[in-house]
Amino acid sequence: MRPRRGVAGVSETSQQPDASQRASAKSDLTRQRVLDAAAQIFARRGFSGTTLSDIAKAAGLKTGSLYYHFASREDLVAEVMARGVRQVAESVEAALAALGPEARPIERLRTAVEQHLLCLLERSDYARANTKLSSEVPPHLRSLHAANEEIYGALWKDLLAQAAAAGEIRSDLSLSAVRMLMLGAMAWAPEWYRPEAGPARDLARTFSEMTFAGLLPLR
Amino acid sequence: MRPRRGVAGVSETSQQPDASQRASAKSDLTRQRVLDAAAQIFARRGFSGTTLSDIAKAAGLKTGSLYYHFASREDLVAEVMARGVRQVAESVEAALAALGPEARPIERLRTAVEQHLLCLLERSDYARANTKLSSEVPPHLRSLHAANEEIYGALWKDLLAQAAAAGEIRSDLSLSAVRMLMLGAMAWAPEWYRPEAGPARDLARTFSEMTFAGLLPLR
DNA sequence: GTCTATATATCGATAGAC
DNA sequence: GTCTATCGATATATAGAC
Fold this sequence. Notes:
The structure is a homodimer. Chain A is an all-alpha fold. Helices cover 71% and strands 0% of the residues of chain A. Chain A is built from 9 helices and no strands. Chain A is elongated. The relative contact order of chain A is 0.10. At the A-B interface, helix 8 and helix 9 of A face helix 8 and helix 9 of B. Chain A binds a DNA duplex through helix 1 and helix 3.
């Protein structure tokens, strides 16, 4: 049987909260283990390079057992992707919040760039899996996922629009082209980045320097 | 039976050049049709999203017939990828040659950027297929392909190194990081670019402007 | 909840007729 | 050269024991 989900699976009127919570806790823990394994493997081998048996083995289960936790492979993929967007969004939003309300738009934009890239490179298997999966996944899953990406994309539109409105970035370039080019450069980074070549922080700095000040010699 | 390849399949001592050329021409034409169909479909649906029967159908053949022209799916993929790198390299090299020998390094670099992106966006299914496949393909194929990419990568290393040596771009940034970030931004572009949003030339201009002059207001 | 066993589908690849 | 037919491997998914 499949466990009830929603509202964290906790029955509000239960007389034995401990028992019901413990039962749900075991299921949730396994489910989490499966998701973590899936995110890690999807991030490395991509959508079609990853089978359910790969994931089950990494999570210490047999393939058939996955269907207790997920209705289908698509459902599992969709949840990994949703978590991926959410983790990046939360990372970036937290860093922006830490800047405080008096931060200038350009500083907020630079913070977003560096956090997005750091999250992708060294913080989250889910984030890496999401970017990789989003370019491989069949149209059906892609459109299911579009709404999540849209919300995060709106944050970037705002950051760029406000920087432009404040005159802190150029206004003669298409902001949507700029946004996609920046996100693209970062999305591709996990494909070639090797930690041995240097810390991710340095790469993030290089990227924001190149993006904001450009490659031409400083005047 | 498989047709002889190499030296364009033409027998130098044949008494009936017409006949032998016509025979090889038919095979070569079909082979070309298969490759074109494969490049187009791989570019759109990726490695695992594309089956041999998809390709055969698009080329007007049955699946089994593909094996007359290619020994395996891997061989077909490898040839599509090899052509992809070659087409981009030839596009860029032709544009560089057209600049003439007196062109300054920064101008050569800008030309390479714009040609690379244009080739990816609107010139070549093979180029698009190659970038998409290279991030999906199993390790075995990836290393087979590494040598081709290495050669093209060397062209970019040269362009950047010479621009830096001439003092025409900044020397305080890691050139290899810069190179990969630029190639990555362009590699991702086919994923989101829609011709309705504007000509590819404009996008190429936006990218080179952003890369060289940066997003900060012009001083 | 997880297991084993199996149904079902599909893909890459091969063999042989034409 | 292309076809039809089919083999063998592997993947997702299901059923039922424990």
